[in-house]
Amino acid sequence: MIIDALHFWVTDMHVDGFRFDLASVLSRDSQGHPMQEPPLLWSIDSDPILCNTKIIAEAWDAAGLYQVGSFIGDRWNEWNGKYRDDVRAFWRGDSGCISRFASRLLGSPDIYCRYHHSPHRSVNFICAHDGFTLNDLVSYSEKHNLANGEGNRDGDNHNLSSNYGVEGPTDNQEIEALRHRQCKNMLATLFLSLGTPMLSMGDEIRRTQQGNNNAYCQDNPLSWMDWTLVDKHADLMRFVTLLSEIRTAEPVFDWNMHISLNEVLEDVSIRWHGVKPDQPDWSEHSHSLALTVYHPITQDELYVVCNAYWDPLAFTLPSRKGCEWHVLINTAKPSPHDIYPVGNAPIYLEDSVLVNGRSMIVMVSKQTRQG
């Protein structure tokens, strides 16, 4: 019956993909035990009618089975819940997550390399249709679900969120500026990470559910799209638009999606840095990390600095003979100076760069102009 229903949606309704909620439950037998080779999931994976569709698994279920990185099949993509949690934790300023954050930037090789999956296997996301919106992730430290009628017991308690000083909306300009910057930090991380980025509609304009992280039952303004936010947060909309263009246009991100993640990481040169080149701080209390990604074919190089520390840090730039650094992104700057198209990125001539607290800078190297 499940396969027949999927066939109907593809052949009659021309649906081009499916996301399976709590997909791991489909790997259990009639007694509830996980199967090593679940026939239904393999049938979906190999079905000729479904062969050109996207199939995405939420690779866990409500009974505790967690299969991120080990979901069966060759075609299944997976919601990477570890990406969500580790990126949220890093930018919130949690200790002990620097190594995991580095792995998430590179397509989560600690999860996917051992099975030789392609880079797009990992569906990276910060927020989804359930849970906090991006705005609420930086505006509320606790869920506010009383309107759901369950005494605030429903919805996840593990949100890795922060209100940065005031619970909910505030007129405090310093707090509001930090929240806006944190939105840009996480969005930039999402679009620059190796894998398949998934953006929850409305996060590009800071849609809010007033702290409700389980609004499935709210068919009212609490869960509706507030289109006035398009004008209110036009700068963030522009930021996301240019992020998408950079990901498409910059050759360093032109990953070959038909080879394995292992091969992709072997084909490019990646160097990790701290405030000094080639001296990353992997310690428990580190809150900042930088890396350069060099593509040997295009000879393009990106320099990315993520500073989740609350104070500014000065980073010495890696030297590149015959090249100049150009600033693509600086989340601490106001629009339109927070992000530039690749072709218009301004040159940066200093040997070091001051990265504001809780901000991100991305630079691209270009050949020095002659004459």
CATH class of the largest domain: Alpha Beta
Assign the structural class, choosing from mainly alpha, mainly beta, alpha/beta, alpha+beta, or little secondary structure.
Answer: alpha/beta
CATH homologous superfamily designation of the largest domain: Glycosidases
- The helix/strand order is HEHEEHHHEHHEHHHEEEEEEEE
Uncertain runs are: none
Largest sheet: 6 strands, antiparallel
CATH architecture of the largest domain: Alpha-Beta Barrel
Mean pLDDT: 94
Description:
With 371 residues, the protein is α/β, with parallel strands linked by helices. The protein folds into two domains: 246 residues, TIM Barrel, CATH 3.20.20.80; 100 residues, Immunoglobulin-like, CATH 2.60.40.1180. The protein has ten helices and 13 strands. A six-stranded antiparallel beta sheet has the order 6-7-8-13-10-11, covered by helices on one side. A hairpin with a 6-residue loop joins strand 7 and strand 8. Helix 3 crosses helix 4, helix 3 packs antiparallel against helix 7 and helix 7 packs parallel to helix 9. The longest helix has 20 residues. The mean pLDDT is 94. Keywords: Glycosidase, Hydrolase. This is Glycogen debranching enzyme. It comes from Photobacterium aphoticum. InterPro entries: GH, Glyco_hydro_b, ISOA1-3-like_C.
